[in-house]
Amino acid sequence: MGKIGFLFPLMVLLLLPPFGATLSAGSPNISTDQLALLVLKSHVTYDPRNFLASNWSTSASVCNWIGVTCGSRHQRVTALNFSAMSLTGSFPPHLGNLSFLAWLDIHNNSFQGSLPIELANLRRLKYLNFANNSFSGEFPSWFGSFTQLQSLYLDGNNFTGVIPSTLGNLSKLEILILDYNNLKGPIPAAVGNLSNLKWSSTVGNI
Ligand SMILES: *[C@@H]1O[C@H](CO)[C@@H](O)[C@H](O)[C@H]1NC(C)=O
Ligand SMILES: *[C@@H]1O[C@H](CO)[C@@H](O)[C@H](O)[C@H]1NC(C)=O
Ligand SMILES: *[C@@H]1O[C@H](CO)[C@@H](O)[C@H](O)[C@H]1NC(C)=O
Ligand SMILES: *[C@@H]1O[C@H](CO)[C@@H](O)[C@H](O)[C@H]1NC(C)=O
Ligand SMILES: *[C@@H]1O[C@H](CO)[C@@H](O)[C@H](O)[C@H]1NC(C)=O
Ligand SMILES: *[C@@H]1O[C@H](CO)[C@@H](O)[C@H](O)[C@H]1NC(C)=O
Ligand SMILES: *[C@@H]1O[C@H](CO)[C@@H](O)[C@H](O)[C@H]1NC(C)=O
Ligand SMILES: *[C@@H]1O[C@H](CO)[C@@H](O)[C@H](O)[C@H]1NC(C)=O
Ligand SMILES: *[C@@H]1O[C@H](CO)[C@@H](O)[C@H](O)[C@H]1NC(C)=O
């Protein structure tokens, strides 16, 4: 009994992996961002003006790709702007790895499908504009994770369900445009009460 009590902690120590092995695998960098955008590129099924086909090449830094902006401090992707590029495609879960993303504007394209829950990791988002695409599925309640969000444009898509009350967590929200979807019911009181909200609109829903 006494012997086993002494040996057991020793065995546990010997079975633990060395420090560092788990640390290095868990720190995202600009390579993480490059991979996320290459996966997005592979999910773009139609790019009539060949914006991504030639420009998004691994021979150039991801920070010089068209529509991509990096921050000077951390050398990570901070903004994506693909508005009005006539792109068709869907959003892969890998986009949730763009952990420094603050600005995401893809309005006036034809992105479709539902949004992957991994996007909830984008905690630095301040501006999100998905207007005039063909996204579908229930309005994700995990939008309540975007605590820095100031502007949210989802107008002209096919989102269904109700406007989630988790949006009431977005204390910095100023603009909320949800026109022309298939949403049911009013803006929840918790959202309408947000003290920074200046402009909200839900015309053209059920
Ligand atoms: C990013 O991190 C990986 C390991 O997690 C490393 O292999 C790679 O060289 C790093 N890339 C840059 C550009 O620092
Ligand atoms: C990609 O587009 C950017 C912005 O238009 C341009 O500065 C860059 O030279 C292009 N890169 C390639 C490889 O075509
Ligand atoms: C985003 O791209 C569009 C079209 O290329 C351009 O008109 C607009 O100024 C860009 N916005 C930002 C913030 O860079
Ligand atoms: C998006 O489409 C609307 C309506 O067609 C238009 O007013 C707006 O200028 C477009 N935005 C861009 C960046 O082309
Ligand atoms: C990024 O996200 C994808 C899918 O969510 C995941 O499989 C991948 O391992 C993640 N990490 C890196 C460093 O790319
Ligand atoms: C989306 O399109 C509608 C009508 O085509 C337009 O009124 C609206 O301004 C567009 N939204 C954005 C953010 O460009
Ligand atoms: C929404 O879905 C309907 C039925 O599937 C389709 O006819 C319509 O074009 C879609 N609208 C948008 C903006 O994707
Ligand atoms: C947001 O608020 C809801 C209550 O409306 C709460 O249950 C939830 O945990 C909060 N957090 C997030 C990240 O949505
Ligand atoms: C919203 O504000 C009204 C009026 O100030 C208050 O009566 C109500 O309880 C608030 N609702 C929520 C969900 O915060």
Automatic annotation (TrEMBL):
MF GO annotations: ATP binding
UniProt gene name: LOC111276291
Cellular compartment(s): Membrane
Entry GO terms, CC: membrane
Alphabetical keyword list: ATP-binding, Glycoprotein, Leucine-rich repeat, Membrane, Nucleotide-binding, Receptor, Repeat, Signal, Transmembrane, Transmembrane helix
Domain Leucine-rich repeat-containing N-terminal plant-type span(s) in chain numbering: 31-70
Keyword hit for Lyase: no
Position of the signal peptide: 1-21
Transmembrane residue ranges: none
Topology term for the membrane: Single-pass type I membrane protein
Gene3D superfamilies membership: Ribonuclease Inhibitor (3.80.10.10)
Name of protein: LRR receptor-like serine/threonine-protein kinase EFR
InterPro entries associated with the record: DNA_repair-toleration, Leu-rich_rpt, LRR_dom_sf, LRR_N_plant-typ
